[in-house]
Fold this protein.
Amino acid sequence: MYCNIGKKIKGLAVFFCVIGIIAQIILGIVCILVGNGLLSALANSYPALRQITSGTVTAGGIVVMVIGSIITWISTWLLYGYGELIDKVCDIEDGMYYMKR
C-alpha cells in the first residue's frame, strides 16, 4: 500500500490534472451552449440584451476553457512536486543504506 508512494502521488497529480482539464473543457462548452440559448431566449423579451452578441458568450466559454485549464495545470504542480520530493528522498535513503554496508 505504501510502496513507491512518490510515484503514486505523482500519478495522482497527473490524474487530477487530466480530469480537471477535461472538466474545464466540458464546462466551457456548456457555458457556450447554455449562454447562446439563454441569450436568444432573453433577447426576445428584453430588447436591451440584443446588444450582447453570441460572440461575447462564445468568447466567455473559450476563456473558461483556456484559463481554467491553465489554472488546473498549475495547481497540480505542488502535488507533483511533493511526489518528486518523496521519490528523491527515497533514492537518497537507498544510497545511504548501500554506503553503510
User: Anything to note?
Assistant: The mean pLDDT is 87. The two ends are 28 Å apart (CA to CA). The chain has one domain: 5-100. Helices lie at 5-45, 54-75, 77-100.
